[in-house]
Amino acid sequence: MKLFLHHFFSRNAIIARPGYNRWLVPPCALAVHLSIGMAYGFSVFWLPLSRAVGIDHVEACPSGTSLWQEIFLTDCDWRVSTLGWIFTLFFLFLGFSAAVLGRWVERVGPRNTGFVAALCWAGGLLISALGVELHQAWLMWLGAGALGGIGLGLGYISPVSTLMKWFPDRRGMASGLAIMGFGGGAMIGSPLANLLIGHFASATSVGVAQTLVVLAVVYYIYMTVGAFFYRVPADDWRPKNFQVKQDGDKKMISRHDIHVEDAFRTKQFWLMWLVLFCNVAAGIGLIGMASPMLQEIFAGQLLGVAKDFNDLSGDEKKQIATIAAGFTGLISLFNIIGRFAWSSASDKIGRKATYSIYFILGFVLYACLPSASHFQLLWGFVLAVGVIVSMYGGGFSTIPAYLSDIFGTKMVGAIHGRLLTAWAMAGIFGPVIVNYMREYQLHLGFSSAESYNQTMYILAGFLVVGLVANLFIYPVAMSVVQSSLKKFTMLDKVANAAKKLGKEIIVEAKGLMGSAGGGATDIVALQKRDKWQSAGHAATLAVAWGLVLLPLAWGFYQTMVAAVKIFG
């Protein structure tokens, strides 16, 4: 059994048989990403948690209470800015875990990585539930923020390089398929969490702790199933009639693979790091406060009454919280569409041109948001935020294809992991700027609706910096290519020696297991594992896609219902 489990989780165990249908792999990626994508929907918890002690009102901490004191106090409510650190920690640990463990992910494969990601993400949610129950913010930071963030990092990068190896003929589409689920997770998770909070809420509880426990169980099951059914192509596999496409940025597409250590030292890597940082810092700050922002800016307008947020009754605040949860789902829809649409478009117009669109159009929209808020233009505000979020999501799904164009596909997973440190840093700057600029504006006497205006102009400035960095990206020098060829030649020699030794060990292990009785049957079962998943099994394909499309359809329905409520 021990050998069986070792083989089951090894990379060799998930190499696909000849004739395997590559369209069975995207549902596995979506199952993982739809689960961890709930990180984007965590703002639905902020306002309920900000009255976890007072239940129907905010029990404010004594004046002068520091952040360090607040995370340990049990008799007063948390500020939204304190809770917002969970969002920051999500992406801080996501980026650095992806960077540190990127090469391990490439070595062990997506099944092993996806299972560990499920343990971390679900375990983090359970620890956070305990933190809510004990009213200890530091436990929530440790659980969802730190441990959950590691789960995010592992779950995020594991499908990307896998799908790009399965779809070398459609790199942009492949990275869009891999990553769009992360953007769509909140479209399902936010309304589901809101329903669960309403179900569990009582006179003594806001219902968040119980909701986190339910979500942890559901996500663990979903992610584990997705991870166990991953397959990777053989090293020499290519799609039928495959040719390297030279659409879009023809001179930007490399025919060579660059080693991760060489890529890390190039100017191109750090320019792309800055491009991703600027795109994420601007977008993540907006998404992290999406739910409170809509409630505080439009307040009574969402219910058809002329009231500011602070003038609303407790029941009215609950009603607009439900509407705002729908808004979170709506921008998640823009996120998921943008991740697929923009990255697919980049296959035609090129990655560099696509990022230029993100930065130029994004700057204009950010600069217009304060005016939409001032004139209470709900349609304009929602549409502008939606397009911004679509480009934010598109930036994530386009960057792996951009990396593979510049550095090749062989080590794109490890390179992508290191690049995601940009996301980690942006995860600090974006939410912190929005949260603390909001509190500073309120301290100066601005209304809740006006407290976000200056922040939008700051976020627009990030996009200008990103545009300049993108314009300076160019192909790597031939000296870098030659250095990488030497490294890959050395790695191939080591791999061939390891394979020879591995075959000898497996032959010996088979003999030992056979003599022990029944063990050889396990090995045979593993060797035949993909027979039922061959290209002709249309039912298998339908079931696999149904398991991810049905939750997405439910999330889409809930989003449309919420959109009707938003616009009345």
Distance between the termini: 59 Å
Strand content: under 5%
Can you write the helix and strand succession as a string?
A: HHHHHHHHHHHHHHHHHHHHH
Total strands: the figure is 0
Helical percentage = over 70%
Outline, from the CA principal axes? globular
Largest sheet, strands/sense/barrel: none
- Overall pLDDT metric: 82
Counting DSSP H or I runs of 4 or more residues, the number of helices is 21
Rg, rounded, reads: 24 Å
Structural class: mainly alpha
Low-confidence parts lasting 5 or more residues at pLDDT below 50? 501-530, 532-536
Describe the structure.
With 568 residues, the protein is mainly α. The protein contains 21 helices and no strands. The protein has helices at 2-8, 25-36, 46-49, 67-70, 80-108, 110-134, 137-166, 171-200, 208-228, 260-264, 267-288, 290-298, 314-349, 351-374, 378-407, 412-419, 421-443, 453-471, 478-516, 519-527, 538-567. The longest helix is centred in the last third of the chain and has 39 residues, at 478-516. The termini are far apart. Mean pLDDT is 82; it is low at 501-530 and 532-536.
Give a short synopsis of this structure.
This protein is an all-alpha fold. Helix content is 73%, strand content 0%.
Task: Please describe the structure with a list of short key phrases separated by commas or semicolons.
mainly alpha, 568 residues
SSE layout:
Layout: H1 2-8, H2 25-36, H3 46-49, H4 67-70, H5 80-108, H6 110-134, H7 137-166, H8 171-200, H9 208-228, H10 260-264, H11 267-288, H12 290-298, H13 314-349, H14 351-374, H15 378-407, H16 412-419, H17 421-443, H18 453-471, H19 478-516, H20 519-527, H21 538-567
Helix pairs in contact: 2-7, 2-8, 2-9, 2-21, 5-7, 5-16, 5-17, 6-7, 6-9, 7-8, 7-16, 8-9, 8-13, 8-15, 8-21, 11-15, 11-17, 11-18, 12-13, 13-14, 13-15, 13-21, 14-15, 14-18, 15-16, 17-18, 19-20
